[in-house]
Each structure stands twice: as C-alpha cells, then as structure tokens.
Amino acid sequence: MTALAEAPAPDTSVPSPDEWEAAVGAVRALPQDAQVLLVCHVNPDGDALGSMLGVALGLRRLGFHNLQATFPGAGSPPVVPEPFRWLPGLDLLVPAAAVFPAPDVLLCFDAASASRLGDLVDRLDTAGAAIVLDHHASNTRFGGIHLVDPGAAATSVVAEGLLARLGVALDPEIAECLYVALATDTGSFRFDMTTPAVHEMAARLIAAGISPGEISRRVFDTRPFGAVRLYGDVLQRAQLEPEAAGGVGLVWTYATLDDLARYGQQPYVLEPLIDSVRIAAEADVSCVVKQVGEAEWAVSMRSKGAVDVSRVAVALGGGGHRLAAGFTGRGSVGDVVASIRAQLAA
Question: What is the pTM of this model?
Fold first, then answer.
C-alpha cells in the first residue's frame, strides 16, 4: 500500500457555535435593502449551484430584495449546464461583469480556495463581510467567516444549516435546489459519504413537496444524443494501468476540444463521464482529463477507498476530498497523466 493509501483520515471538524453565530449575526444585521452577493465556484456543478440558489431563495423569503447570484465566467445572460436549467432561483443569476463592486455581504459556496472564484476574488476584499460555506477538507479558510464542514456530504448540508438558523422554513423551491445539490455530490446517494444524516436531510427535503423521481430523471438520466456518441469515443480510448498507485490500479481517459466540437457539445456534458470510468473493477483510482485550452486540462479524480486522491490533487495545485478531487493540469495530456502517475507513486 502506498503512503497515499496510509494517510490519516481528513479533518472532520464542524463549524463552531461561534462561527455559526457570526454568520447568522452578519446576515441579521443587514437592512433589507442591503446588497447581497452570492458566488459559487467556476464551472459550477449541482452542489455549487443548488446550494447557492437555495440560500438565495431563503434570503429572498426573509425579505432581502437586492440579491445577486453568479459564478466566474457567467456571461450575459449567464448559461448554466443543461441538467440544471430548470432550477428555481435562476432569475437571480446575473453576469459576472455586472455584480455589486462592494456588496454588504458576500456568501461563497463550494469553493475550497479563493482561486476558485476567478475574477470575482476581489469581492472578498471589497465586501463588508465574507461568509464561506463549503465541505472540502482542503479548504484554505479564505474569507472572514468560515462555515466549513469537511465531514458533510455536500455544501448543501451547510447551506441547510444556515437557513435553519436564520429561521427559513423549507418550501418546494428551496428544497428542490438543496436536493439537487445533495443528490449530485453523493452520486445519487451511492457514495461513501451517504450517511444516515444524509438520508434524514433528503427526507426533510422530499417532505417539503418535491418529486425526487422527476429530479433524478432531469439531472442524471437526460443527455443530448451527441453527448452519448461523444462518451463512446472517449471511453474507447480509456487506459488501464494495474500496477499504478502501488498496485491498486489506475484507469484514465481524456477528452479534447475537438471531441466536443465534433459532436457539437458543451464542456459540461463531460462532467458525469467519470462515473462511467470509475466502475472498472481492476482500478481503485480513476481520472478523466478534459481539455479546456490549448495546453490546459481540467482533471477529475475518484478513488474507491485505497488512495486519498485529494493528496494528489493538492500536490498538483487543486483540492477536493479523499474519494473525489480535481486540479488543473498544463502541457500535453501525457504530461498531465505522468504527473498523476508520479504522485500516486510517491
């Protein structure tokens, strides 16, 4: 077993009572015409969008009417991945270039480091208060008030905790956003972070009046036909390295910008592809390397338990969890995979 596999368990500390009190106090101290900016990480996934929009809707229920939600790179109008284009609260999204220059409060969602906020990172300095909601063990504790719970299955767990402490009751719209966030980050409740508390939260959200079957069909079971054909090409080039990672195995593949163009697809369609790669029985570690620029690649990594992939990701400039992590690599796809291989052998 490698040193990575023998790593100690991640910090499972939860936000302290003082941190919760500071976050709740910062929101309650605001006048209802305060400028409230909510931001999630670049290329948002279901947890980032769902948590952000769920809290935004909750703040609107409290009477705040000067709300903006956005993410780095959000254009005019903001475009979100197709599986999430029906989420409640999308009317609160604004282009990244049009956000408040100095909001009274900034709430950040699902970002492990300030760099994940892209060009919006300067709002950490101009905001009256900055509250960070996250569940990544690699969180760097940027911002002023930290609601970071590495033991939580999703940022939506932290988001629900904040809404409850603010006295916001769950309604179908808020619950739908938080359920999407929870379901996506737990792999539709299949991943190891799916605890009894996760199912208890899901039960509360379903009781608020949502349809989990319809949500699952939209999020997990609906893809353009072009994406189906694209997946075939990318999976066909998958490589298995049984001796990698100290003998527990590595399986990886890659997708290029040309692949996307050939089938007329947007980059977001590649996000679920890691689930089709990670099922290989002969490998503990799986990777999908996705081209985002001429020599730039977004890397998604997963582990079945023997290897802490967050250590690999952090060593290569990224972050994440023990079983799911990612980073941005540069060079050729061969260079990127070689860097992963080297870290797995360290």
Answer: 0.88
